[in-house]
């Protein structure tokens, strides 16, 4: 809208507009709430991590941050990431990125109190971060937040296999070579470097891990764990409830092997709750230690454990995958059976009530085989996926307490956390290893104008456009009729087109492959003509949208004339209002004096009824 005049926006003014032809006129989630009510005794026992005095106070609107930990079950669960492209667009933070940037993402993690920080890895193993940068958790070397992704050069070329974060937040990252990196909040030595100095950039964690190859990492609120390729578990950081498993409640400044009854066991997976820890060993046994005030260790009591204890209630079962929420846990067996225990204030156990469970109870017994479970220690949300691909959710979902697993229309458990968790973090490192995989839509787009696979070509303005008859017949009724056996065109290998220009016809054919149109407003007029001739109503609407966005004082009357000619009433209304709102300017353009006389008369009559010529 012209700022020099107090005129109305062309899309807002309705007035007395009539078409220039005969006929009738057209017509966040709230922040993470306080923990389970059952967790109040955690504060009384000082098992909730206090804020270090040396750190600046955090805004009351920003509760504790989250952790995410990919699990490594005995048998890989049939996750959605096997065979489809990674989709991060469901998380609002990634809406700041363009399609080209998004197409390079191979792995990603969204974290933070309001899902306001992100890290992603590209297909060429470059690591980028963006977001709020609380406690230097982006690792950029400074405390500045950024909406523009920044590359972490120190991690370039290193293949990331595991990533996790805590509540400060602090971040742990393991590479394919077995190296462990840490940065961010360090008030309790959760970075494992022997100090409490904040980590402003990624640093290798080497203390007690020399010649060890780390394969998986997990973070609690302010403690950390690492799993090696030999099945050893190391833990360090905040230890007020025994979550480090050292036999005491003294904080652990550097990685220390968790021994006790795990000494001669081979661990295959580790997870953390806020102040608790769990591990699965190679024979499917589960061990837990740390805070147990809500029964999240599944031991049949609510006493804290300073060293690992086996969950005897799961004896005889082979656990394949285990996950932890804020104060609850889920275990999936190799037979597809699902067990839950711990806090249940929001129904996160899926038992049909809100009573805590001190021992594992089987849930979803009437459902088919479960192949994946999901939980994240920053939320009270749970999710599961069945063998047929059905996705269920329960617990705290956008403020509602869902006490029984609810069937959704999602295709993966990640969608539950993107759309219903508070905060909407990723429950694991979202990953897609098949970087050469193309969806059906991507494959079709790639084959447009490809002479190697085409069985037909159009000649327009002396230039060829290569296409596939089958695609054209599927996508367009005009071509379906054209390629019938009684039409001459059905036998041709080259079809001459002289009614439309090359840019217009190529855009039309490309639209049939991609559903997208990229044209200037002037060329879009020609495509609008084609869409009208071929009865392609959706394409017609797309053309009108392009024209609306490209309208200027210079081309307004040309576009108005085209809208009338092609019977595009909505576009005609838009162009008419634009011309009225910029009447002085548009009447001085060449396009105004070139329009048809009858159209000019109709325009003047309609404009006068709208009061355009009042003093």
Automatic annotation (TrEMBL):
Gene3D superfamilies: Potassium Channel Kv1.1, Chain A, Regulator of chromosome condensation 1/beta-lactamase-inhibitor protein II. SUPFAM superfamilies: POZ domain (SSF54695), RCC1/BLIP-II (SSF50985). Residues 49-60 have a biased composition (Pro residues). InterPro entries: BTB/POZ_dom (IPR000210), RCBTB1_BTB_POZ (IPR047996), RCC1-like_dom (IPR058923), RCC1/BLIP-II (IPR009091), Reg_chr_condens (IPR000408), Signaling_Regulatory_Domain (IPR051625), SKP1/BTB/POZ_sf (IPR011333). Residues 1-12 have a biased composition (Basic and acidic residues). This is BTB domain-containing protein. RCC repeats lie at residues 125-176, 178-230, 231-283, 284-335, 336-387. Pfam families: BTB, WD40_RLD. Residues 1-69 are annotated as: Disordered. It comes from Pleuronectes platessa. It comes from the Eukaryota. Residues 36-47 have a biased composition (Polar residues). The keyword Repeat applies. Residues 24-35 have a biased composition (Low complexity). Keywords: Repeat. The lineage of its organism: Eukaryota, Metazoa, Chordata, Craniata, Vertebrata.
């Amino acid at each position: 809208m012209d700022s020099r005049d107090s005129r109305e926006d062309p899309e807002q003014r309705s007035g007395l507009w009539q078409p220039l032809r005969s006929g009738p006129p057209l017509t966040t989630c709230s922040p993470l709430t306080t923990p389970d009510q059952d967790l109040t005794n955690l504060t009384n026992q000082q098992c909730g991590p206090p804020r270090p005095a040396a750190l600046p106070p955090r805004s009351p609107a920003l509760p504790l941050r989250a952790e995410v930990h990919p699990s490594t079950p005995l048998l890989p669960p049939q996750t959605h990431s096997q065979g489809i492209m990674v989709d991060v667009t469901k998380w609002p933070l990634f809406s700041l990125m363009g399609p080209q940037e998004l197409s390079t993402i191979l792995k990603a993690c969204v974290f933070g109190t309001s899902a306001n920080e992100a890290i992603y890895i590209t297909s060429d193993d470059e690591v980028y971060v963006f977001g709020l940068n609380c406690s230097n958790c982006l690792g950029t070397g400074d405390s500045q937040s950024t909406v523009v992704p920044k590359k972490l050069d120190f991690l370039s070329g290193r293949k990331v296999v595991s990533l996790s974060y805590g509540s400060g937040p602090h971040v742990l990252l393991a590479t394919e070579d077995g190296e462990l990196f840490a940065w961010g909040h360090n008030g309790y030595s959760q970075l494992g470097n022997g100090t409490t100095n904040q980590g402003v950039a990624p640093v290798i964690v080497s203390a007690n891990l020399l010649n060890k190859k780390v394969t998986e990492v997990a973070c609690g609120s302010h403690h950390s764990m690492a799993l090696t390729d030999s099945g050893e578990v190391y833990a360090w950081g905040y230890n007020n409830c025994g979550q480090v498993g050292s036999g005491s409640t003294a904080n652990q400044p550097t990685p220390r092997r968790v021994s006790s009854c795990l000494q001669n066991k081979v661990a295959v997976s580790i997870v953390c709750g806020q102040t608790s820890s769990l591990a699965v060993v190679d024979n499917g046994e589960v061990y837990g230690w740390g805070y147990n005030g809500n029964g999240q260790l599944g031991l049949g009591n609510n006493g804290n454990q300073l060293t690992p204890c086996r969950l005897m209630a799961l004896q005889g079962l082979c656990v394949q995958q285990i996950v932890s929420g804020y104060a609850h846990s889920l275990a999936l067996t190799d037979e597809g059976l699902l067990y839950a225990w711990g806090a249940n204030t929001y129904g996160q156990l899926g038992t049909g009530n809100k009573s805590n469970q001190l021992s594992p109870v089987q849930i979803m017994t009437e459902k088919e085989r479960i192949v994946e479970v999901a939980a994240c220690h920053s939320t009270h949300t749970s999710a599961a996926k069945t063998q047929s691909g059905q996705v269920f959710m329960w617990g705290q979902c956008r403020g509602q307490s869902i006490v029984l697993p609810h069937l959704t229309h999602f295709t993966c458990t990640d969608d539950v956390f993107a759309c219903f968790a508070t905060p909407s973090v990723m429950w694991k490192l979202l990953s897609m290893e098949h970087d050469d995989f193309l969806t059906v839509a991507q494959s079709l787009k790639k084959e447009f104008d490809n002479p190697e696979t085409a069985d037909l070509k159009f000649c327009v303005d002396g230039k060829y456009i290569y296409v596939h008859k089958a695609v054209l017949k599927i996508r367009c009724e005009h071509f379906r009729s054209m390629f019938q056996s009684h039409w001459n065109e059905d036998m041709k290998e080259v079809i001459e087109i002289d009614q439309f220009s090359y840019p217009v016809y190529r855009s039309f054919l490309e639209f049939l492959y991609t559903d997208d149109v990229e044209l200037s407003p002037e060329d879009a007029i020609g495509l609008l003509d084609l869409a009208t001739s071929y009865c392609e109503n959706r394409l017609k609407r797309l053309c009108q949208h392009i024209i609306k966005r490209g309208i200027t004082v210079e081309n307004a009357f040309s576009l108005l004339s085209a809208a009338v000619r092609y019977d595009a009433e909505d576009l005609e209304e838009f162009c008419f209002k634009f011309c009225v709102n910029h009447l002085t300017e548009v009447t001085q353009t060449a396009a105004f004096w070139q329009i048809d006389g009858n159209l000019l008369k109709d325009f003047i009559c309609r404009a006068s009824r709208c009061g355009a010529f009042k003093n």
